[in-house]
Design a protein that fits this description.
It comes from Myroides guanonis. This is DNA topoisomerase IV. Helix content is 13%, strand content 53%. β7 and β8 form a beta hairpin. It is mainly beta and 126 residues long. It is globular, with a radius of gyration of 19 Å. Strands 1-2-3-4-5-6-7-8 form an 8-stranded antiparallel beta barrel. The protein has a single domain, classed as Lipocalin. The chain is built from 1 helix and 8 strands. The chain has one helix spanning 2-17, and strands at residues 31-39, 42-50, 54-59, 62-72, 75-80, 92-100, 103-110, 117-125.
Length: 126
């Protein structure tokens, strides 16, 4: 009986390590994207176009531009080019967790802050 338990316990890590979620991050480095979030019961939509080293976002009729520094294929740092206040001067770390078809799940947070949020972004054009 103990041999069976030991065998099963050593087999579990091998079985679970075979499963990896899809991460085709390079497919999402450039293009036009849409992000929706619910704020106070209302759906807010942000659209943005990402090029290799710049991102132009439109949110509630306002356009903002950020620089992009890629850490690796699945992680980058966003920094606003024209911050309007101290809060906007802080860089944001973005990490793509999984990809599927034309969407990716990501987490983000201010650089140096341990708090992280998650969301899903849809690629709407190349």
């Amino acid at each position: 009986m103990i041999k069976r338990i030991f065998y099963f316990a050593t087999l579990i890590p091998f079985l679970t390590s075979c499963y990896q979620q899809e991460r085709n991050c390079a497919d999402f480095k450039t293009g036009t994207f849409k992000f929706e979030i619910e704020i106070d019961g209302e759906i807010k939509t942000s659209t943005f176009t990402r090029m290799d080293d710049i991102e132009i976002e439109t949110y509630e009729g306002k356009v903002d531009t950020s620089s992009i520094r890629w850490v690796n294929d699945c992680e980058y740092i966003l920094k606003k080019l024209h911050p309007k206040n101290m809060a906007e001067e802080k860089a944001v770390n973005m990490r793509i967790l999984t990809t599927k078809d034309n969407t990716y799940t990501f987490e983000y947070g201010l650089v140096g802050d341990s708090r992280r949020e998650r969301g899903v972004i849809e690629k709407i054009s190349e």
